[in-house]
Amino acid sequence: MRNCKFILGIFAACLMLSTVTLGSSNDELRKVKSGAVVPAYRMTAVDGRIVDSTQNKGKVVVLVYLSAEQHASELVASDADRLVKKFAKEDVELAFVTADVVYKSSLAKHWEQAEIAAPLAFDAERSLYDALGLVVLPTTVVVDKEGRLAHVLSGRRSGYFPLLDILIRHALGKIDDAGLEEELRTRSFGVGSGARAARPDKLRKVALGALVPTYQFTSLDGTSINSNGLKGKVVLLVYLSAGQRNSDRAAADAERVFKRLENDDLRLVFVTADVGQKEHFGKIWSEQGISTTLSFDAGRKLYGELGLIAFPTTLVIDRTGRLQHVITTRKTDYAHVLDAYAQHTLGLMNDEALLERLEAGSLDRGSPQALALRHRAAARLMRDKGMVDGAERELRTALELDPANIHIKLDLADLYLAISSPEESLEIVDAVLEKDPRHRRARLLRGIALYMEERLDEAEVVLKDALVLNPDPARTHYYLGLVYERKGDKDKAIEHYREALSRFLDE
Questions:
Q1: Range ranked top by mean pLDDT from 71-75, 147-151, 200-204
Q2: Do the beta carbons of residue 313 and residue 327 sit within 8 Å?
């Protein structure tokens, strides 16, 4: 029992888990509601593969229903395929479906050109379409491991890729309900708070995740730059226009970002089609202290193959030669965004950290809310390193800057539990619950605080309620186990410990 408690104590301190389904937005189907079993289906894909719902039991399924010759569907197909590849080691399956059988050959060609790995199946009789009660196309359906509807995304909105990433992680149990709510509230997806949407930058001819066309340029100093020679490196390719102030500024910004990162796996390439403007670029290079040479796309070959929309355009290309990020024109946050994209593609920053960095950059850098976010992030790092006093100071500072932020308040309440100060935690949590009596994370923290104060009967009631709300199953089961062990009911204690361990191992 002691060993089990010791191991689970570590788990509880490190993990925030969940496996429930929760509607993420107002998106919905007409005939299948959140939490209901998704109708069974069996269809044949364009390449002969069978897409069968019975084969995916125990897996999270991302089912994307498309419409042929619709730009939004093409974008969703590329985004979803690229995203699910990131979950290659997880129990996640992706399948595309369409009723447009008449476009079979053109769809097959597009699948090949876009290098989409997931199957495209045909719902010839619209059986699945009708069974789901689809409202618009494209529609993305996330099905949990038990075959129940977890999330729905209608259409293709800005921020589709990071939003679907969050919903898949939630369906997998990677983030709990409270984490889902927080990410939807604070991220920029047009869900919940209506915060600024994710950057919609794109190229006309090359989708994110697709291979960038090969290129070979002659540079200003006479050397040759070849894409084949850059394989294995992350490339920042900045396409410029002569006599344009934004291009001049982007070149200077990109040079500074490149030098600041100082990474052997990173390369910077400047390119322009304005071969006759060598003197202009030489002057700018000298004034700005730019040492990276400029190359020339003399016949506008790469320009045409990319389908550039505006200047400057910056491509962030991964080690395999695939397009990971695009920045069109130069906005005031250009350097901030380029730095984040470069670190993300280098593997120095995960998806969640990237979104958080972009979110912080979308605020006025000097605004109280932006400063509060930075202090909260610093508190997380300090707590992870055991620097509790520093974490408390950072959270207190964050609250002074943004006193209405519930998530900062609950971070502080959770910190007080970690240092065995349940009274201080309860003071914060009860204030939150006074305004929102059903707040999931607040109720869980209250149950833990009550246990720590030896108010076992109250703690049992609150934790059972928290388990129904399901903000964090592993942690909730663990503390229920502690409650029952303290009350002398060892059978129930062991039952909850086992369930907590099972939830952890599932993760």
A1: 147-151
A2: yes
Q: At what angle do helices 2-14 and 490-506 cross, to 10 degrees?
A: 40
Report yes or no: 162 and 153 within 8 Å, Cβ to Cβ.
Answer: no
| Model confidence, pTM | 0.41
Common-topology check for domains 20-172 and 216-362: yes
Domain 216-362 has CATH 3.40.30.10: yes
In sequence order, the 6+-apart residues with CB closer than 8 A to the CB of 314 are 236, 237, 238, 239, 250, 254, 326, 327, 328, 334, 338
How many Cβ atoms sit within 10 Å of the Cβ of residue 188? 20
CA proximity to 313, closest of 214, 161, 200, 203: 203
Break the chain into its structural domains and give their ranges.
20-172, 216-362, 383-506
Query: Cα–Cα distances in Å, from 243 out to 274, 284, 308?
Result: 10, 10, 18
**Neighbour-count burial of 352, counting CB atoms closer than 10 A to its CB (0-12 exposed, 13-18 middle, 19+ buried):** middle
pLDDT per residue over 341-394, tens digit each? Answer: 999 898 887 766 676 677 665 545 557 877 787 788 778 877 876 788 888 988
CB atoms within 10 A of CB 40: 11
Task: Give the total residue count for the chain.
Answer: 507
Domain 383-506 has CATH 1.25.40.10: yes
pLDDT tens across 360-375, in order? Answer: 655 455 578 777 877 8
> What is the b/e burial string over 143-176, where b = at least 16 CB atoms within 10 angstroms of the residue's CB?
bbbebbbbbbbbebbebbbbbbbbbbbbbbbbbb
Distance CA 165, CA 161 (A): 6
Just give the CATH number of 20-172: 3.40.30.10
Give helix 440-452 / helix 456-469 axis angle, nearest 10°: 160
What's the pLDDT at 360?
A: 61
Percent helix, strand and coil across the chain, each to the nearest 5: 50, 15, 35
* Interatomic CA distance for residues 317 and 323, integer angstroms: 5
pLDDT exceeds cutoff 80 at 2: no
Tell me the per-residue pLDDT of 427-473, one tens digit each, with 9 for 90 and over: 999 999 998 887 878 889 999 999 999 999 999 999 888 776 555 67
The count of other CB atoms within 10 Å of the CB of residue 461 is: 13
